[in-house]
Each structure stands twice: as structure tokens, then as C-alpha cells.
Write a structure and sequence with these properties.
Layout lengths: L5 H9 L3 H23 L2 H17 L11 H24 L1 E5 L2 E4 L8 H18 L4 H12 L4 H8 L3 H25 L1
Antiparallel strand pairs: 1-2
Helix pairs in contact: 1-2, 2-3, 2-4, 3-4, 5-8, 6-8, 7-8
Length: 189
């Protein structure tokens, strides 16, 4: 019997071939688990991430494109993104406490809610909005996705169907423009 390539297995998985899924799982479960464990440092969390990663492989319509690189690199990127998402969700969950079983309340950080801190935030927000006029629509969208919506650079590269290096370079240029503008604003005041 011929040993199927990762690309062939992924093509079969899109057609809901369980045997292909099991082969791919057996081939990469240890790698995904060890990468997840290094990322989250919890065996239980790493097991959950493994489930999420392989669920993504089973349910994804697009997924891996052999023309863009090796499967193992794509799989590690998916695992990394799942680990980041898992960690973010855990942090959000830990920042809340249960009042009643069905209600969750955020614990306010009083040091951030002083009148002075609020004025500083409002002023900074206005300066950033003012600096947005120096950026293109694509640059603004990139800044918002990274800093306000919480996407990783890899996720944005996948969404835009662009190389990760292009996204990193574009972000660097955006931050450079914003930094220069905000520095000039600070010097004027």
C-alpha cells in the first residue's frame, strides 16, 4: 500500500474520509501535543488544544495549500494560533468571577479608573484617531485587527492571503508612522 502524503490526506479529509483523518492524526498527534504543551504548560490544556486543532482539520473547508509550504509548518501555525486563542480565553475567564451561576462580572481595576487615567486614555485615543489620517485604509484595518480585535499576524496573513513577512513589514511601517506622529504631538504639548 502506498503511503499517502499529507496533502493527499488533507484532500481526502475535506471529503470526510475517516481513515485519512486517522492516519493524519496518528502521524502528527505527538507533535501537536508537544508544541501545545510548550505553549500553555498544562497537560489538560494541551489535550484540549490537540482536540481543537484536529477538529479544525476535520471541519475546515480551505485549510492547507501545498503550494504555500509544507503541511507540518501549516499545522504548527494552526496549533500556535489555537494555543494563543486558548490562552486568551483563559485570561478572560480568570478576569471574571461568578456572582450567581448564570452571571459573570468583570472585576474592575480601580487604579485604571481614576479621573486622571480616564483623561489620559481619552487624550491618547484622540491622538491615535488623529494619527489615523496619515494611514491608508488597509493600514488602519491592520492596526485594528492586531490591537483591537486580537488577531495574530499569522491569522491576518491567512485572512489576506499574503505572506507573513508582508504583514509584519506593513505593521512595522504603520507603527513607525504612528510613533513619529505621537512623538511630534507630545513635543508640541
Amino acid at each position: 500500500m502506498h503511503k499517502a502524503t499529507d496533502g493527499e490526506l488533507m484532500r481526502l479529509i475535506r471529503g470526510r474520509d475517516r481513515d485519512a483523518f486517522e492516519q493524519l492524526y496518528d502521524r502528527y498527534v505527538k507533535l501537536v501535543y508537544s508544541f501545545a504543551l510548550k505553549s500553555v504548560r498544562s497537560e489538560q490544556a494541551a489535550r484540549e488544544i490537540v482536540q481543537l486543532v484536529f477538529m479544525r482539520l476535520w471541519t475546515t473547508e480551505k485549510g492547507y495549500n501545498p503550494d504555500k509550504g509544507q503541511f507540518v509548518n501549516w499545522l504548527i501555525t494552526v496549533t500556535r494560533n489555537m494555543s494563543i486563542d486558548y490562552t486568551r480565553n483563559q485570561r478572560k475567564h480568570e478576569a471574571t468571577i461568578a456572582i450567581e451561576p448564570d452571571q459573570w462580572v468583570k472585576i474592575p481595576d480601580d487604579s485604571l479608573n481614576t479621573p486622571e487615567a480616564n483623561l489620559n486614555r481619552i487624550g491618547m485615543r484622540e491622538q491615535i484617531r488623529d494619527a489615523y489620517r496619515l494611514l491608508s485604509d488597509n493600514q488602519i484595518k491592520l492596526i485594528e485587527r492586531v490591537y483591537w480585535e486580537g488577531y495574530t499576524l499569522s491569522e491576518i496573513a491567512q485572512m489576506n492571503n499574503e505572506p507573513l513577512g508582508t504583514i509584519k513589514s506593513r505593521l512595522h511601517q504603520c507603527l513607525k508612522v504612528l510613533r513619529k506622529h505621537l512623538t511630534l504631538q507630545e513635543e508640541e504639548t
